[in-house]
Amino acid sequence: MHTPLKKINIVFLAFIVLLIVLLAAMALHKKTTGRYALLSFDVEPVDGQENITELVGLLQAEKINATFFVTGEYAEQFPRAVLLMSIKNEVGCHGYSHKSFTSMNHDEKTEEIMKCKTIVENITGKKIEGFRAPYNRIDRDTMKILEEYGFTYDATIINGLGIFYPSVKELNMGEIPVSSMLGIPLEDVIWTYYLHMPGAFFYILQNKKSDIVSYLFHPHHIMQNPEQLKDIISHLKSQNITFISHQQLTRT
Predict the structure, then answer these.
(1) What is the domain partition of the chain in residue ranges?
(2) Of the candidates 242, 251, 240, 217, the residue with the CA atom closest to the CA atom of residue 37
(3) pLDDT of the residue at 28
(4) Phi, psi of 174 (to 5 degrees)
């Protein structure tokens, strides 16, 4: 009889084997035209100002656009950083206080969204069109609020896990999902902190073959390895991939 620990080890081994097979398939599959990469960064107070200044400088040096989903609390504490990121990039809403929207009532959700929207728009002088919910957790009520207040898209849903999220088909609002591998989002914290697989994560970022790939980063985390981020960008450029913001994608 297998002990619980042995069962866990078997499951993890099966996951690794399947991952290796998929990575090998990615390496063999070639697609070199009409491809887009969306870099997005979820920003909250822990990211500070220095990480953002360095990150924005990196993006400017690489001459690419990205999307920053910012909390209202961050914007209040670091308005100059928000203004800096808005010069060449898109700035979206990430809620005011980084609370889970699935644990709030309707009025609380509305306040979280509108407070963030107002603060960021007053700083940047630009209309916010996009939203990503903290922890990638969203419900239909939140989506209806976003539609009511003029948001054109949501970027919360994880690709491949659509059955766990509400549909936007009946809403006048688009959805730009976060790309995934085996249902695990291409998101830095999960792969590098929880799974302890930075090598696999960076390989997938560089070699995932599809028309549009949406990556999710956290500045205080990815900027611990800025050279690695530069290498990813350089590699993607060599594959004739175009970097665009979420907003630009909605307008193509």
Answers:
(1) 34-250
(2) 242
(3) 47
(4) -90, 170
Q: What is the pTM of this model?
A: 0.86
What is the average pLDDT score of the chain?
Answer: 89
φ/ψ of residue 131, rounded to 5: -145, 140
What CATH number is given for 34-250 in this structure?
3.20.20.370
pLDDT at residue 78 tops 70? yes
Strand-pair category, 180-181 with 184-185: antiparallel
* pLDDT tens track for 31-58: 444 699 999 999 999 999 999 999 999 9
